[in-house]
UniProtKB/TrEMBL annotation:
Virulence factor required for growth in low Mg(2+) medium and for intramacrophage survival. May be involved in regulating membrane potential by activating Na(+)/K(+)-ATPase. Residues 19-139 form the MgtC/SapB/SrpB/YhiD N-terminal domain. This is Protein MgtC. It is found in: Cell inner membrane; Cell membrane. It is a multi-pass membrane protein.
């Protein structure tokens, strides 16, 4: 049997330690994700860490450090496809980016353990957990600070939900209402929500916006028979 010829006790024990360390550290990271009921929870995080550790350890056994480096490069890029699966776009909002980044870091933890760098893997785990827990109050505090839109370039978008049959008519009315309020439109896109609803997103040309005036425009749009919902959103960049 080929197994009898290739089996070596001490390298096998080394592999066991690497996979066990990846399992434990991945579980620590995943527990926080599971507690917050994220898309990728405990099991997914553990499997990512253990899988990365197994691939890197296999490469170390077969081709040494050079082989491990090549495998790590593929792990770094390949885990991106898995992370993309937990990213969801809901209208104007994107969810799951933090969970995808956590999976990416879990793969880094697994790669470290597979390369027999358990101490470094534990350090990465500590930083990942700290990033997902200790930074949360700081993020919430920053989000509560009112934005100074005079100092930042703001982008405004008006979103109207209507029936597919009334799409063209509603879009024309939306543009007319905004231009009548002296808010020219730079771009108009549509997003299909379901078979019975579609979003029309009108992006305004960068200009000073009076929130009360924009509220009045949205109120007029919501009175239209074909409009189920209308709102406006703003985002800023340096």
């Amino acid at each position: 049997m080929r197994f009898v010829q290739t089996f070596e006790l001490f390298p096998f024990l080394d592999t066991c330690f690497s996979l066990l360390a990846a399992f434990v550290l991945g579980a620590l990271i995943g527990a926080e994700r599971q507690y917050r009921q994220r898309t990728a929870g405990l099991r997914t995080t553990v499997l990512v860490a253990v899988g990365a550790a197994a691939f890197v350890d296999l490469a170390m056994r077969l081709a040494g450090a050079e082989g491990a480096i090549r495998v790590i490069a593929y792990v770094v890029s390949g885990i991106g496809f898995l992370g993309a699966g937990v990213i969801m776009k809901e209208g104007m909002n994107v969810r799951g980016l933090n969970t995808a980044a956590t999976l990416w870091c879990s793969a880094a933890v697994g790669a470290c353990t597979g390369a027999d760098m358990a101490a470094e893997a534990a350090l990465v785990t500590l930083f990942v957990i700290a990033g997902n827990t200790l930074l949360r109050p700081l993020v919430n505090a920053i989000n509560r600070i009112p934005l100074n839109e005079r100092a930042l370039e703001a982008t405004y978008e008006v979103v109207v939900t209507t029936r597919p049959a009334a799409l063209a008519e509603t879009r024309d009315v939306l543009i007319e209402q905004l231009e009548a309020a002296q808010y020219p439109v730079s771009d108009v896109t549509t997003i299909e929500r379901s078979e019975e609803a579609v979003d029309i997103v009108a992006r305004l040309i960068s200009t000073a916006v009076d929130r009360k005036e924009l509220d009045l425009v949205v109120e007029k749009l919501e009175r239209l028979p074909a409009v189920a919902h209308a709102t406006w959103e703003s985002s800023t960049s340096d």
